[in-house]
Design goal:
- It is a single chain.
- Helix content is about 35%, strand content about 15%.
- A seven-stranded mixed beta sheet has the order 1-7-6-5-4-2-3, with helices on both faces.
Length: about 375
Amino acid sequence: MKDKLHFNSATIHGGQEPDKAYGAVMPPIYQTSTYAQSTPGGHKGFEYSRTHNPTRQALEKSLASIEQGTFGFAFGSGLAAMDAVLKLLKPGDEIISTDDLYGGSYRIFTKIFEDFGLKFHFVPMHNTKLIASSINKKTKLIWIETPTNPMMNIIDIQAVVKLVKGKGILVAVDNTFASSYIQQPLTMGADIVMHSATKYLAGHSDVVLGALVLNSSSIADKIGFIQNASGAICGPMDSFLTLRGIKTLHVRMQRHCENTAVIAKFLKNHPKIEKVYWPGFKSHPNHIIAKGQMKDYGGMLSFITKGADYKAAIKIVERLELFTLAESLGGVESLAGHPASMTHASIPKEIREKSGVVDALIRLSVGIEDVRDLISDLEQAIG
């Protein structure tokens, strides 16, 4: 029965069983580095915690369940998970990704893996035709981020999968902004799903953790080897906290989405706001695609003040009281960020601004507080 659960049940029960030792409903925190063996190689499935840990294993099973995947892997951070995917490639291989992706992703692509012989192409992937024109015989990976960070562009996952079918090109989707509640890329044909589980999956701003989920046993074997050999694992405490967070993912995401819809409409009608980036608007360029591949429109939005005023943007984020000015997103509390100087500072200004990440842009991660209080905070900060 647990293999056929609806999402709201899978977050709580998917891949989970009571602990075998004492029947604990929540998997215990196995805070141990090693395990006793009766004879060399004679153990109970665990020998060293870099390789396997019961708490991490419980989390990995949960991750696979909520993404409707077969294999789950947990890492020390989202970037560590990305690192494992990129290690599937070889020098000379080429990767296509969006031109407005998260600054940390851009950094690991260009500052780390370009030095190892990988070549990256950054294109506006919300236009599938531009992806097609960038594919060549050396292309081995399409890295999708949808919605994109922070411009909220929507990339058509099924269209990309169809585009590369039969060409030996992997399709990986960073599902951090949407979360497993809103979209499940494996069901659309993607090969790999990545999460910065630090965000919505854990959901309480108290964990740094990354995740990969996939269906292919051959790729899973390679990822499992890389995870163990490179050692970028998460610890049992963080595994426990993330697993606990997943159990309320569905109820949290409902409120994130509800609050964001209200705030997006408030900002759109505000006389001092020039533009609001949120895929729930019918005017959004790929709204129809978002409506088709997403269950809801998420808890993130970005906006620009009238006249794209940089000083006004800084003044707003500094005056916010209920929204906390901080890095990250996806926690129960609302956060505000200035991408140009925070999350996307590692991207050169001329490249950043071409994709729309201008100095006047503000990004909001809308929490689950009472939306009336959030609106009041925005009203006083915008003035």
